[in-house]
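Example is below:
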Amino acid sequence: MDQLFKLKERGTSVATELMAGVTTFLTMVYIVIVNPGILSTTGMDFHGVFMATVLASIVATLIMGLFANYPIVIAPGMGLNAYFAFTVVGGNGVPWQIALGAVFIAGVLFIVLSLTSFRYVLLDAIPTSLKHAITAGIGLFITFIGLQNAKIIVSSPATLLTLGNLREPMTALTLIGLIISLVLLAYQVRGYLFFGMLITAVLAWIYGLLALPDTFVAAPSGLVATAFQLDIKGVFTSGLYAVIFTFLLITLFDTTGTMLGVAEQAGLLKENKFPRSRGALLADAVGTTTGALLGTSPTSAYIESSSGVAVGGRTGLTAVIVSLLLALTLLFSPIIAVLASIPAITAPTLIIVGFLMMNVLRQIEWQDLEEAFPAFLIVVLMPLTYSIATGIGIGFIVYPILKVIRGKRKDVHPIFYLFAVLFFVQIVFFTH
């Protein structure tokens, strides 16, 4: 064990890694409830997506733990699942099979990038301000979806949107669930989102808003409904190049940023460099590709991994333990399906995750016009257009224009000009 994970070298033990694994699992296990709930809105089978979510997470996290030896967990990313369900499928009317094809292609490209140094070129081409804006914009978009699902915000003929009826039982329970999760967060309770969902579920059952299944435990089933259903040919006939690029772009820099942050927290960076970065990125790339084959949206490294690091996790053994715990959730699909069907249980998680993602806005230089305004457009237009890709695209178009106007055209990476042209063509000629 010590030889495989270098426990003594990193100043940890099996007991510490076990505690770290349990802690990380409790902070991220909400995804096995939320992700199938979101993707099932596209017509995908809930149980199939649930199994795909768990299996893709296990595969990617095991690769991370056994080959890269990092205490980092990988699972379908929040934001990427919303983009898949509400923009690509719901907004553009693309069948979910074709959307899975786009995820698969993005995953394959990610694998290629992980094996070459071009990944650094691609990351360096995107300005830091726009990276932060994309994260914040996705957060605002997720929050908006949570508010809509709970009917805290509803459509209005006069103003497009307005405040919903807060006295409706499900809406009122959502607010109660949100308060519960926020209190747990304020007191820094490990797994506050998961425990907040459980407490809200109990309240929903008490007030007759939740009907318990006949059995809580059942053999895993349903994967046949989503596995290998992807339509790769349809991706090209539908011209979903911007969708592929968006999946790839978000996954690449979101994963890289999260991994660097967690590795720095664990003291695993060497001279500010990320050792074994190829294996770490490859874990996520394989997770995304596997997820597409099985039936789920792209995977991403989870910032919740930092909770395990905080209690001493320093090696891949933490990730392996999380994988084993995730495998156990496969037996509880009946109760998980019920929990995911109640907006009051899932909406608070969407709202709070969105709030946490907005934190990066403070890192944008708001006094710099050509940096701040494109970032502002990305953040605002994602929820207003109900499209993550459109928000990114318009921000990417405006950024080089402002730089050129201000006489700073050399500050823009040559590849970024290509990104801007591609997004311009996509938005102007193919969006509608």
Remarks:
- Residues 189 and 213 are 29 Å apart (CA to CA).
- The mean pLDDT is 91.
